[in-house]
Amino acid sequence: MKIIFWNIRGMGQLARVRQLKELMSQEKVDIIGIQETIKQSFSSQELERLSLGGPFSWNWVPSRGHSGGILIGVKEDLLKVENWEQGEFFVGATVRHRILNFRWDVLVVYGPANHEVSMSFLEELRMGCQEAELPLMIGGILISSDVYKTKAQGLVMKS
């Protein structure tokens, strides 16, 4: 099974979308998590064109202006999405392996560039982790900054 998390920095450019399709095809990706799509929505035709090698289930969080946006795709031949979950800074899925019957949660996150909302992001991430009842995989951009410190319940995070 292959899972890829990628900060694509905009899906409005045909070259970026072509790169994504090539990567998904070459690597035979089962789950793809894309950050910084910089798109409000996706048409069914756009998502269908990305679904090389089999059908995918898709979900997304829209961008805010010229930043953010998250897209997750789960290949349906091997995996089944049992539940979608969305927040301000993440999109996730409860996934079940069709053969092994193994279930887990996948979260694709994109941390804020605006440090004023970093604590909101960390709180949303903390709640998502705390509420998880299944094994949890998190991928993406956790904090979008060069270097800074933030304190959250006694934990100092550095990027």
UniProtKB/TrEMBL annotation:
Residues 6-126 form the Endonuclease/exonuclease/phosphatase domain. GO terms for molecular function: catalytic activity. Pfam families: Exo_endo_phos. InterPro entries: Endo/exonu/phosph_ase_sf, Endo/exonuclease/phosphatase. It comes from Panicum virgatum (Blackwell switchgrass). This is Endonuclease/exonuclease/phosphatase domain-containing protein.
